[in-house]
Amino acid sequence: MQNDSLEISIMGQGTLPRVPFLDLKNKILGAKYELSILFADTKTSRRLNRDYRSKDRATNILSFSYSKTSGELVLHLPTIRKERAAFRMTEQNFITYLVIHGMLHLKGYAHGSTMETRERTLKKFFGVTEIK
């Protein structure tokens, strides 16, 4: 699926989760930012995580910044489905949160209080809440 400067790909079969990907991209990275989102299979997620983070396992999300105006997010749905309960979120909300988190990394944020504050603001804006 391609829309403006957003491309979304799914390895294998599956349906795209209902997440406002384009709205997230435009709000966080800007309309002109070129973003690819890949829903990777286990082998690909594990290989990328091993090659770039020295962690030999699939992971929920990876962020790759190629320039100030382009980057890629790689998500792994099986890991996301395993972890979402610990975050007390629906699958849709957890993916939205992870995409926010990944996009902030693409914007140059590092883990810490500044990033967490920005995440809270964006989660509120996009209606990401925990399950009560």
List the helices and strands and how they pair.
Elements: E1 2-3, E2 6-10, H1 21-28, E3 34-39, H2 42-53, E4 61-67, E5 70-75, H3 77-83, H4 91-106, H5 113-125
Parallel strand pairs: 2-3, 3-5
Antiparallel strand pairs: 1-2, 4-5
Helix pairs in contact: 1-4, 4-5
Cα shape: globular
Q: How many strand elements?
A: 5
Strand order of the largest sheet: 1-2-3-5-4
Question: Nearest-angstrom radius of gyration?
Answer: 14 Å
Q: What class do helices, strands and sheet pairing give? A: alpha/beta
CATH superfamily: Metalloproteases ("zincins"), catalytic domain
* Unreliably modeled segments: none
Describe the protein's architecture and organization.
This protein has a single domain, classed as Metalloproteases ("zincins"), catalytic domain (Collagenase (Catalytic Domain)). α4 (91-106) packs across α5. Strands 1-2-3-5-4 form a five-stranded mixed sheet, sandwiched between helices. It contains five helices and five strands, in the order ββαβαββααα. The protein starts with a strand and ends in a 7-residue tail after the last helix. By secondary structure, it is α/β, with parallel strands linked by helices.
Write out key terms for the chains shown.
5-stranded mixed β-sheet, Collagenase (Catalytic Domain), alpha/beta, 5 strands, single chain, globular, 132 residues
